[in-house]
Amino acid sequence: MLAELEKLQNEALAAIPLADSDQALEALHIEYLGRKGRLRKIMGELASLPADQKPAAGRLANQVKQRIQSALAERTNERGRTALTPAPPLDITVPGTGRKPGTIHPITQANDELVEVFARLGFETAHGPEIEDEYHNFEALNMPPDHPSRDSFDTFYIGGPGEDSGLLLRSHTSPVQVRVMETQSPPIRIVVPVKVFRPDTVDASHFPMFHQLEGLYVEEGASFADLKAVLGMAMQATFGGFDQHIHTRFRLSFFPFTEPSAEVDVSCPFCSGGGCSVCGQDGWIEILGAGMVDPEVFRHVGYDPERYTGFAFGVGIDRIAMLKLGISDIRLFYENDARFLAQF
Ligand SMILES: [Zn+2]
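Above are the sequence and the zinc ion SMILES. Below is the predicted complex in structure-token form.
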């Protein structure tokens, strides 16, 4: 009888791993372990064995039953795993996914156009760090710690609560001109097209991050007339066509780092100054801030203000892009909506 049990076990363990369907496994279960199965049949003979052989035969019968059960369970698991991870069918007739060609972001387009206009006027491009120290962002630009003009530039400081690292995200482009003047002697003729940061409340025309282009021109004898000439030509190239003359208008203003300072308007290129919705029926659009560099700024970088004069100007790149492309909400630039960006 022991030999019969061994034979049964060997046959079952050989057949189970070959079962390739649920039905085949079920059939094996019935054949070996079922109520009328082969194991039951052998065990039926247990009663007729001599008493001293019964315990050993009973133990072996139980072991055989357990081994067959676990072999069946293992094979069932194995088949389940295979069913869950079928090899991906390959359909070579499905069209490819393809990639849409990108477009240049409207801010970058406006940036590149402005840089090119000023390059034609002899201005090189300069860059500087986005994380600035307070000295370059404020003090070197004639904005001492308690000066009220710092309020409107109060920006994002770097560091934990209560920690004063003296570092901040630059709030304007002017720290770059300081860095250039610290390392170069006049004549200087640069534009600085960069990203700046201010804690502005977000609305259609304000965003905490935006782009500015600043220009700096320093040499012996530079005058306000040079400033007006350079900005007049640059605005004509930026907004004017062959048949449209762009006028500029200078209004007195204040900036801590220039003296005298001016807000610069251009005649509206959309209505030629007649009045429309873009210029608010005014005929003029405010575009630039400009002025002659304050002698105090030259002293900070070691230039002799008796010998050198210069002018600086700043323009919002986002604003230029909005005007030229007819976009009324600055937030659209930063939402990464491909449907918007693909139009330009
Ligand atoms: Zn207009």
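The chain has two domains: 2-84, 106-341.
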